Amino acid sequence: MVSIELSGQPVEQESVSFYVLSTGDDSNPGTKEQPLASLTGARNAIREYRDSHNRPTSFTVWVADGYYEMKEPLVLLPEDGGASAEYPVVYKALPNASPLFSGGKKISGFKKGKNGVWEAKLLEFGYYNFRFDQLYVNGKRAVLARTPNEDFLEIGGVEQHIWKKGKGSVAERAQQILTFNGQHAEALNDIDEGEIDLVRFRAFHKWDFTLRHLDKIDKDSSQIYTSGKGMKHWNPLVKGGRLVLENYKKALDAPGEWFLDKKSILYYMPREGETLDNTEIIVPVLENLVTVSGNATANNLVKHIRFEGLKFSHCNYRFPRTGSEPNQAAVFVDAAAIMLEGASDITFYECEVSHTGQHAIWFGKGCSNNSVEHSYLNDLGGGGIYIGIFDRSKSGTGGPEQTHHMRVH
Question: pTM (2 decimals)?
Answer without folding.
Answer: 0.92
